[in-house]
Structure formats: C-alpha cells, structure tokens
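Supplementary Text 2. Reproducibility record for the structural model of the 349-residue chain.

All settings were left at their defaults, and a single model was retained for analysis rather than an ensemble. We include the record here because the model underlies the residue-level annotations in Supplementary Table 4.
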Amino acid sequence: MKHVISTQSLFVFIKSALLATGFTKKNAEITADLMVQADISGQDGHGIFRLPQYIKRLQEGGMNPKPKFKILSQRTATALIDGDNGIGHLVMRHAADIAIKKARRSGVSWVGARMSNHAGPAALYTKYVLDNGLIGIYVAVGSANHMPPWGGTDLLLSTNPISIAIPSGLNPPIILDMATTVAAYGKVKTLIQSGGKMPEGWMIDKQGNPLTDPTKSKDGFLLPIGGPKGYGLSLIFGILAGTLNNAAFGRDVIDFNSDHKTITNTGQFIIALDIEAFMDLELFKSQIDNVWKEMKSSEKLPGISEIRLPGENLAKTIKKRTSLGIEIPAPLFSKLKQIADELSIPELT
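Retained model, structure tokens:
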C-alpha cells in the first residue's frame, strides 16, 4: 500500500521534525524545501526517504543542528568553507550562494566544502545556480563506500555523483545528474523497502557473480559506469571533492547508513559559470535550443520512440508530482509515523 501526500504536507512534516531536533526556523525551512524538491524531482532515494536517517544522526550527535559556517580560505574566484558538521543541504546552499556571488564578479567560481554531510541529489544545487542565471556544476564524495577500485574488492570509492545544469530558451534546461556507478545506492535502498529486485549489472558479489537481491547488497558492490572509465571518474571526483578540501576520501569515508555518531567530514564542491563572460546569454540559450532540436530530430534506431535530453524527464516529473502529490511506500510511512510519535509532532497525513 502507498500513501499519496501533498508537497505542502511533506514540507510541513519535515520542517516540524527538524525544528524538534534543534534546527532554527530558517534552516528547517531551507532543508525541508530542498528535501521536498528532491521528491518532486523523482529522486525518491534522497527526499523524505532520508529523514529517519537524518533524525537518528541528529539525535545521536553525529550531525550539528545549528552549524556556523566559516570561510577557511578564499581568493577572487575560489573559496573553501567549513560546514561545522551541518546537514549537507544547508552547507551546499551556503556554498552555492558564495559561488554565485563570486562568479558574477569573476566570470567563474569554485567553492569547496568540508565538514559537511549528505546533501540529497546533486541537481538541487546546480539547478539553484541555474535559477540564478548561471551554469552550475556540482560534485560530492558519496556518504558511504560501495565500490572498489577497478579489479579490486576493497570498498574504497563511492558513487561520487556529478550534476551540470545548463539553461535553454524555449525548452527545459539541460540538467545532468548522475552517479559514477551504474545505479546510485539510494535506489538500492528504495528497492529494499518496496521489495523489488535489482536489474543485473547494478551490483556483483565478491566472486564476480550478478547480485539482484537488494537485501544482500552488503555482500557485494556497485559497478562503475563504463567499467574502468567510471572507476577513473569516481577516483578523480573523490580527490577533487574530498582530498582537495581536506575532507574524507577512501578509507576515511564514514558509512552514514550504519554509523550515526561519527562525524563524516563529507566533501563537496560547486562551480558557477557566468555565461555572459563568454557570450550573450540570450544568444547562448537560443543555441542550446538548436542543440535540443538537433538531438530530438536525430534518426532513431528501430524500436526507439523518442530521443531524450538530460533533464527532459525531470521537467515532466516535477509538473506531475507537484500536481498529484508524492507516493510514500507503507514501510516508509510507518517509519515517519514513528518519528512523529518520538518527536511529539503531528503525523503526516
């Protein structure tokens, strides 16, 4: 059984839960809005699905409900911030604001973050930069290691996601949001709740056999996209988002799925690019519309009904879910009811 919940009800519930665990009103509203955006966008493994995990980490002291951000170093177009172990949504919104301001002055900016936490889907932050008239690029070290180096079995790498958001004129923006693994681990977790099976090619066990039972995911590891090329991307992104920021990478990454007390020191970075530093914004958008037209009109393979661009389905999903609400699986709904009882807040209805 699934429960269909309005986006406003989700927002109110998440905000109430965060307030009850020590968030300020402003920070609770920012975080709740971003989490609801994740669900509206179809990122079911990163929205309210993560709330029980966040609450447990807050309750057990693994995450700071009232962070005070600091700029550790900066130059004209760069900055490194310390997130004071705050929830990643707040840290990266703060980082994005700095990046936008610097890019408008310098044409491009790069803002790294350390002492952060899980921040939900990558596209939340590139879309925020996009909505402010710039191109956004975001990379993070995943919040648990689920992948070995190519040919190995030690779990030293994560999904290390990347997102890039590019504006267009008459069409939806082009928004790439992908993991460096074939599937993000959040999708595995949602399948555990729904009772589904993983397709072959998502994971293998330590003997190299296909793993399709999500409840046995701890017995194996995720596969990188493109074989060794995906491993290379994950490695480089981990260095740029983790090592360069003096944040966790490799064996130092804490599995926040099972450890709710240890500080994760998650690393991320966001780049903002001012299109006007290169060309007229409206001309650029019109040229992206031409890209849309070329891609969509490409001759299709037999059996293919449509060619899509990154972000095209996102726009449709946002419209649909904003109107019809969000489906919450029964197991998650039960957990949220338990949270309401523990925190003495109104239940989700």
